[in-house]
Specification:
single chain; 130 residues; alpha/beta; Nucleotidyltransferase, domain 5; five-stranded mixed beta sheet; 3 helices; 33% helix
Length: 130
């Protein structure tokens, strides 16, 4: 099973490709404010490095958080959109072993259908004063 993993909760974003539990390749970069513009190129580069295409992906694992609000939101939007368009299962995972736990869940036939973010804290809203 060819699995794509995506983690975008920190300044260094990461995508990786696994065949079952064996990591084939990884691509890390400084996402910052360009994450939404660069993530697709890094996924494409990762796939090309292994002579694979998007259509070869059979499952996706996304890091749910906690972390940067915008980073988690962008990463999971990509996870959810790719899974929907490719018609493949997805799982969201957290913690230090998120990738291996997510891969195990996929291999056991689990599918979250939508990977939901976990932010750990409430939103910090600036109250407008008049």
């Amino acid at each position: 099973m060819l699995i794509l993993t995506i983690r975008t909760n920190e300044p260094i974003a990461e995508v990786a490709l696994f065949e079952g539990t064996t990591q084939l390749a990884t691509n890390s970069w400084e996402g910052k404010r360009l994450l939404a513009r660069t993530i697709h190129r890094h996924i494409d580069d990762l796939l090309k490095s292994q002579n694979k295409q998007l259509s070869d992906i059979q499952g996706i694992v996304g890091f749910r958080g906690p972390g940067s609000f915008t980073g988690v939101r962008i990463g999971l939007t990509v996870v959810d959109t790719l899974a929907y368009s490719l018609n493949v299962p997805i799982v969201g995972a957290m913690g230090d072993e998120w990738a291996s736990q997510g891969i195990a869940r996929l291999q056991h036939g689990e599918n979250d259908k939508i990977a939901m973010p976990y932010y750990d804290k409430g939103a910090h809203i600036t109250i407008q004063t008049h």
